Amino acid sequence: MPALGTARQKPALRLEGHALVGVRFHAREQVRLSFIGDTRRAQVVRADAGGSFTTPFPSLASCLRPLMVKAVGARGDTATLKLARLACMPA
Question: What is the mean pLDDT of residues 52-68?
Answer without folding.
Answer: 80
